Amino acid sequence: SVQPMYVRFGLVWEKSEEAGLRRFLAALDSPRVLPLKVFECPIRDVYGDHWSTTGVETPDTKSDDSAVFLPGRNLLLLSQSAVWCHLRGIRTIAMGVLSGNPFMDATDEYFTAIERGINLALSGCLRIERPFRGLTKVEVLKRGTGLPLGETISCILPAHGTHCGRCNKCEERRKGFLMAGMIDTAEYATDEHLK
């Protein structure tokens, strides 16, 4: 069985992202996929008026990938979920970190250290797996052929629940589908992504 988990930080895209995740999981219609577990980890007091909490000056299509860095995000994603899994005898957490992720909290060194730290704190034996760590976004998209990828949300500034078509992540998604030779069936608020 697979236990999907989602952590709400209070970031501007989460309502749309979580709704997309729920549609994706429903479309899978698999008895092996358990109901979504949601954790609350409000970050506004820590991040303050960061673009991720306000939507102001969100990195656009011309922004470098480093502009979308969220300090400590992988640390925060693992905090509650690791303790929750440990208390329920779940021994493996899988994260979707991809090859080419430029941030320190996506490296082998980081995950070795955080896994060790978690297990020291919990006197446990939790494993953190990254099954896509050697794959690019294009390779992951190709592996997802036949899955309801159009239900997913990649946008960091959704407009009425759909992709804005103007942010850094919409551009990354557009390029990924194009390079994979696949059609993105997700809705976009603007056709700017088609240019």
What does this structure look like?
By secondary structure, the protein is mainly alpha-helical. The protein has 7 helices and 4 strands; from the N terminus they run βαβαααβαβαα. The radius of gyration is 17 Å and the shape is globular. The strands form 2 sheets. A two-stranded parallel ribbon has the order 1-2. It has a two-stranded parallel sheet with strand order 3-4. Helix 5 links the parallel strand 3 and strand 4.
Which structural traits does this protein have?
37% helix, 7 helices, 195 residues, two-stranded parallel sheet, globular, mainly alpha
Write a brief structural summary:
With 195 residues, the chain is mainly alpha-helical. It has seven helices and four strands.
Mean of all residue-level pLDDT scores: 95
Helix share, percent: 25-40%
DSSP helix count?
Answer: 7
How many strand elements? Answer: 4
User: What is the spatial order of strands in the main beta sheet?
Assistant: 1-2
The first-to-last residue Cα distance is 41 Å
Low-confidence stretches: none
Largest pleated sheet: 2 strands, parallel
Helix-strand sequence: EHEHHHEHEHH
> Helix/strand-derived class?
mainly alpha
Give the strand content.
5-15%
Give the CA-based shape.
Answer: globular
Write the layout of secondary structure elements.
Elements: E1 5-8, H1 14-28, E2 37-40, H2 44-47, H3 51-54, H4 73-87, E3 92-94, H5 108-122, E4 127-129, H6 137-143, H7 168-180
Parallel strand pairs: 1-2, 3-4
